Amino acid sequence: MSQTSLDPQYRKIAGQLMMIRFPGTELDAATAAFLRENSIGGVCLFRGNMRDAEQVRALTAALRDAMGPEALIAIDQEGGAVVRSTWLPPPPAAMGLGAADDLELARQTGAAVARAVRSLGFNWNFAPVLDLNNNPDNPVIAERSFGAEPVRATELALAWMEGSQAQGVACCVKHFPGHGDTHVDSHRELPVVNKPLEELERFEFLPFRMAAPHAPAIMSAHIVYPSLDPDYPATMSRPILSGLLRGAWDYRGVIITDGMDMHAIAGRYGAGQAAVQALQAGADMVMALGTRETQEETLAAIAHALASSAVPPREAAQRRARLTALAARYPCLQAPYEEEAADRQRMVEGWRRGLTAYRAPRRPPPGARLRLVARRDVVSDGVSEAGVPADVIAACLSGMGAVELVTFVDEDSFDWDALPDDGSYTILASTSRLRHGEHARRSWRPDLHLALWNPYHALDIAAPALITYGFAMPALEAVRDWLEGRLDAEGVIPVPGFAP
């Protein structure tokens, strides 16, 4: 059956099972027509779609007009480095909340995040993360995880989710059945978690099993779990999505895939075929975040699968019903943001309470000269926002006196021994997610190491450290207050491997 001869109704049903992205800060006429003509069910907005609050509100209003009352408009506003609306009150990262270990703080943080994004017109947030990060070499989760102890990490995540949903924003826990113990990023490669089923059930699976009765949505991971399915990643695996999640755990909410444009999927299976197989496996919505060309390919492939009953009509109807119920429970309506000032203070408290000392750091003596060493460029790992510029850190610390700023381009060639031995209190600020290499580990010796992004940076450098789990301004202000003796670092890092 050719695309031209296909009943347009199948394309509309297919569209309802898809979430897309698009470029720009306005809804152009072509995208609006694509949404309307194909009844696209969901849109996810990213940093490139956002300029300021007024612009985003206008954009989400235009999307609701094009998509109708069942629109699902989503965002990744996890906290820490993974935020899209960067002008909103900055939430502490999940691991910072794990370090503070306070359920009410987690609940209030989730509520504040929801109030902020709902005021912009979002009704779905792809958070919180339920991955348990026990792998220091994980390149993409790290501080996005609440910790490594399954029960406590899940309790904190569920408190965060409860706060969010009480404010009218649906959560989507991720990345089922667990992305924490991987050493590759599924945006670039296909990870494999090759553990016995008994171990998976005790560790990776436990948070999702605990969350299943409460979470309105779960996002699948592009990871192969040979103990359950040796052939396909969870996103495309019927034994995992239908057998385990729907069947054994009786999950009733929405299952959405992670981005199908990620190399672990698109680079191996092709966008259209992978989307069909994800629906056949049990997903309700396919996140088609590629180009318009791949979105058209996905739409056509799903429509053909519906027309041929490769995706049976009964199953398609069940998927549409779950998505409709989600949109009805969490309608896409803007709300005034009356608690913004109070929420900023809540976020500040979260960053301060998560601040963690490692290897007994000592404050600089009164009147000491400060030298700050940091990388020159500001980088992103493709998932997170770009790190904090070195001059911003220096400016934050400048209230303590003059700060000498030393930057490097390539850490592998930076000569730490070339720094003058002049009695300055030397601070290293780690401002990317990438772990430090052998050269830095062997030769860099600051008086204080600020791990401003990836907490595992503190393991790379043999020096006392402060761990902030993120680089938002409240984190930098907490560091400054610690240096000046106005704040103690009382967080406890909630993952193994940080022996004194």
Topology:
Elements: H1 8-16, E1 18-20, H2 29-38, E2 42-44, H3 53-67, E3 72-75, H4 94-100, H5 103-119, E4 124-125, H6 150-166, E5 170-171, E6 173-176, H7 197-202, H8 205-211, E7 217-220, H9 238-248, E8 254-259, H10 263-269, H11 271-281, E9 285-288, H12 292-307, H13 313-329, H14 340-354, E10 356-358, E11 370-375, H15 390-397, E12 403-408, E13 425-430, H16 438-443, E14 448-451, E15 465-467, H17 473-483
Parallel strand pairs: 1-2, 1-9, 2-3, 3-4, 4-5, 6-7, 7-8, 8-9, 11-12, 11-13, 13-14, 14-15
Antiparallel strand pairs: 10-15
Helix pairs in contact: 1-12, 2-3, 4-14, 5-6, 5-14, 6-8, 10-11, 11-12
Characterization of this structure:
This protein is an alpha/beta fold and 500 residues long. Helix content is 38%, strand content 12%. The protein contains 17 helices and 15 strands. The protein has helices at residues 8-16, 29-38, 53-67, 94-100, 103-119, 150-166, 197-202, 205-211, 238-248, 263-269, 271-281, 292-307, 313-329, 340-354, 390-397, 438-443, 473-483; strands at 18-20, 42-44, 72-75, 124-125, 170-171, 173-176, 217-220, 254-259, 285-288, 356-358, 370-375, 403-408, 425-430, 448-451, 465-467. Strands 5-4-3-2-1-9-8-7-6 form a nine-stranded parallel beta sheet. Strands 10-15-14-13-11-12 form a six-stranded mixed beta sheet, with helices on one face. α15 links the parallel β11 and β12. α4 (94-100) crosses α14 and α6 (150-166) runs parallel beside α8.
